[in-house]
Amino acid sequence: DCISLSDVSCYFSLLEGGRPEDKLEFSFKLYDKDGNGVLDSSEVDRIITQMMRVAQYLDWDVTELKPILQEMMREIDYDGSGTVSLGEWLRGGVTNIPLLVLLGLEGDMKDDGQHLWRLKQFSRPAFCNVCEGLLVGLRKQGLRCSLCRFTVHERCARRAPHNCISTYAKNRREAEVQAHVWVKGGCDGAKCSECQRKIRSFQSLTGLHCVWCHRKIHEECQPLVPPACDCGALRDHVLPPAAIYPVLLVSRVMGGLPGQGCAPHSPPGPPEPVWGCQERQDSQRDNGGTPVEETPQVSPLPDTHPLLVFVNPKSGGKQGERVLRKFQYLLNPRQVYNLQQGGPMHGLDFFRDVPDFRVLVCGGDGTVGWILDAIDKANLPHRPPVAVLPLGTGNDLARCLRWGGGYAGEDLGRILRELEGSTVVQMDRWRLEVLPQDPAAEGDPVPQGIINNYFSVGVVRGEGVGHRWGRVCPPGLTVPFGPPQDASIAHRFHVMREKHPEKFNSRMKNKLWYLEFATSETLFSTCKRLKEHLSVEVGGVPAQGWGGAQGALPDLMCPPQVGGTPLELGGALEGLAVLNIPSTHGGSNLWGETRRAPGPSVAQPPSVTDSETLRSCVQDLGDRRLEVVGLEGVLEMGQIYTGLKSAGTRLATCSELTLR
Known about the structure:
Layout: H1 5-14, H2 20-31, E1 38-39, H3 41-57, H4 65-76, E2 84-85, H5 86-93, H6 97-102, E3 117-120, E4 142-145, E5 151-152, H7 172-176, E6 182-184, E7 208-210, E8 216-217, E9 244-245, E10 248-250, E11 272-274, E12 277-278, E13 292-293, E14 297-298, E15 307-311, H8 319-330, E16 336-338, H9 345-350, E17 358-363, H10 365-378, E18 386-390, H11 396-400, H12 412-420, E19 423-427, E20 460-461, E21 467-472, H13 484-499, H14 507-524, E22 536-538, E23 541-542, E24 561-562, E25 565-566, E26 575-579, H15 611-614, E27 626-631, H16 634-642, E28 649-654, E29 657-659
Parallel strand pairs: 15-16, 15-17, 17-18, 19-21
Antiparallel strand pairs: 1-2, 3-4, 4-5, 6-7, 7-8, 9-14, 10-11, 12-13, 20-21, 22-25, 22-29, 23-24, 26-27, 27-28
Helix pairs in contact: 1-2, 2-5, 3-4, 13-14
């Protein structure tokens, strides 16, 4: 079997953003080979065959799928002519959930009350919430809503009621008290929160679970539950619908107003929120001076810290996608943002005036840097503490803050409960300035695809005191940057991942690629005789008459230093690492461990280069110092990572560093 170029073109187009109606019309014209405006039986069969291929690629159980698709296409032929017109295709397609899923058109968050379907494989018996029949099959047997866990057969999806959760209050009455939202089933043999007896669900659809507090109860125990929902164990993080109230509600009539072309059977739609717009003089998005969208009225529950979650689906192979879906269920979906769909500014704008909110970044070190940069640009009234769920490859920030080297599928509810007890710590952030030797010289433009590995705050796993949130210090960047060999390896890794992303779909594969590039760097040693090409000075005083770059913020600028102490670089050194955190290269501590001396700490001078004094210097995230380490090559870096060597060569600690 082969897929024609037109099919490939179709599915590339379907992956782009846009209305389902537009995408359906595009696919109709693409499959209408003779251009007569209708799909005949052969063209319909071709569509069914292509959808079967997509279902197989998605590991869907296709044993019973083809007859369902054939019946589906027959139902779209409303006039029974044996052909499908464009009008019939659009009319039937927009309400046909399995068709939209297989064509890649279903997946974006819809209006309140509409389900967000995804194909699901169940590891234990599951039942349809529409017909209450058993879902059968060896692979992905049905569809489940990511927001409320409503589950259906493919054939029952069109009959599913629009009873999904509301993410905001539609009126003042709803804003006063948060009610439970019960969904039948989904209890998986759990104990009833009221009577503590097990909820058996192996033979039929039994039990109820609340989408907001996640209580699971017997149906007969429902009268025992108070009508007001307290949002359960995750109350500290959740923004319930009752806490979000639009500035303005307007009624929207689907299909137009009466007398203006409205379809005779088009019922009025639900109220649609309209967020009021006004200019903000004090805080503009990206400092751009254009009006920003005013956030709705948000009133969190008392004594809570609503959580704003950013997820990078590309991080950690497919981990990011799973984490995104789980957080959409555990929290209000309006608290969870996919960074691949518009970046972080929409979420920061929505939470701008929310008191005491926190940020959780689900991704790697680069993702954390992206969010911190966005927080700087957003000019928020209060800078929120930021936590990290490590989904990247190295995850050095999470490692040094004692949150582990990577998320391995742990219960997200437990992680959120741990975040609730976290405390705030400060962490240094630094500004890196690259200046030409000749100020009048015109340098090359900064590449748009520059590789960065900067980050700031995080959550620290404390000993005996729970966990600790990190808070951003004065605006800037935390920039741990490594030796030239590291830059060479990282550049090759970045170029290869951009060219072949399918080869980098897991943390283990990424590490193997790093190993391959590091091995070749060891063999060729492209960074020998470092001291012949680099001079290093620590300390110094700002140069006279230097006022900073044009248009820059004065408190972020680092003027060039003069009168610093030069560092002596040994002939065997091939690399220089400048550190701000005690972890790099996926867990290596290049500075090494240093025991803190008993008693009060002794104040150190601004710069330390004496080898004896450096032995007692301890790394600290918030000491306003950088650590400078010399390395003899990639082999030494590997020895430190594996524990065969304790550390590199300590060269200095300082607050100012100049490289020439």
